Amino acid sequence: MPDCLSTPSRRLIPQHHISRGRIMDASSTSLLSSKRRELLALDTQKKSLESEAEAIVAELTAELPDGGPPIGISTPLVDDEGFPRADIDIYRARTLRKRFKEIQNDHKDLLRRIDRGLVEVAALMVSFSKSNNDEADSATNDEQQLRSAPKPAPKFDPVTGKWVVKSWDGAVAGVQDGERRRFDDLMGTNDASDYVTGTATGGGINAASDAVTSSPAATTPSNATTESFMRQQQPTEPVVAHLEPFAIIDQVFSNSPASSAGIQEGDVLLQFGPIHSNNHENFSAIAKLVPQIAGDKKNVPIKVRRKREMELGEISDVIDLELWPRVWEGRGLLGCHISKYVDNGRGS
Fold first, then answer.
1. Where are the alpha helices (DSSP H) in the chain?
2. Could you tell me the residue range of the domain that residue 205 belongs to?
3. Are residues 22 and 58 in the same domain?
4. pTM of the entire predicted model
């Protein structure tokens, strides 16, 4: 890492340190998980900037092929007589230096955001620890009072044909699945019909689990991404039967994640994970999703439309690809440039 970007190590808080020894409700866990995902995404962006800066510094400080002095990071780009150096590409040198300064500024901003995020996570952990300890003590006292309270006489259960007693939590004791029923409402809604619903629901969960497991891109999600991963599998809006193009790949860099995934210049983007023409929000949804996926070291399925020449003319194929966003030797996490798709009326 260049000296100008070297910083004390920002150690992100592991998930097991957040949850170990604490009883948290769903909202507390969700908030901490969200903050942790934000920190991981920021850390991935920081590493990407550092990798790009290293490549720029290496080029600026490398000896020229003819043995001449390097371009330099801040040395003059003119010779002793004041003329532009003839042994280097002046435009390339200025472009690299400009980008290097941009990286320095972006890097400082990311470090400030990471430090602020770590402070917020620490504060949440202290707050949740105190509140959950109080709630746990209160719940323990309530349970002790319920267990020591006098119980009503046994009643005949018309559903099972047996005599049953009331458990301390109000459930039915003495019959199978009695914990799912209420002693004070034996003929209520939680009767045998509810068991059928439970079986159907269970099958639905298993079926969804099998579908995720069988997917080529669905390796086991980490704790940090399980909630967002499952939300992506469940449509929150009407399913788009015919995917509309919303972006075009107008540049793909060699040895990049996009190139490795098989993406080609001219590919028209139809879908990027859960993102499509109706929800890409002027590409901001992709910009938010990519660092999270890279931080979790996951693939994202994409769908593109690609033209190919045939004897009778030009046709388009819809192709499914797997893209792995990651830090590489170039800029960004994808290695391609995406522009807004404009329909030129020729069905491109």
1. 15-19, 26-61, 90-148, 192-214, 226-233, 257-260, 284-296
2. 155-214
3. yes
4. 0.41
**pLDDT tens across the length of the chain (348 residues):** 665 565 544 444 444 444 444 445 566 678 888 888 899 999 999 999 999 999 999 999 999 888 889 999 999 999 888 999 999 999 999 999 999 999 999 999 999 999 988 888 888 787 776 666 656 656 666 667 777 778 788 777 767 767 778 887 888 887 777 788 888 887 654 443 333 333 333 333 333 333 333 333 333 334 444 344 434 444 444 444 468 999 999 999 999 999 999 999 999 999 999 999 998 889 888 988 898 888 888 899 999 999 887 777 778 889 999 999 988 888 889 999 999 998 775 444
Question: Per the structure block, which two tokens stand in for 83?
Answer: 């003329």
Q: Say how far apart CA 174 and CA 162 lie, in whole Å.
A: 8
- Do 136 and 24 belong to one domain? yes
The SS3 assignment for 129 reads: helix
Domain count, the chain: 3
- Looking from the CA of 16 toward its CB, the CA atoms found within 13 Å total 0
Same-domain status, 15 and 138: yes
Looking at the domain assignment, is residue 345 inside a domain? no
Residues 245, 334 within the same domain:
yes
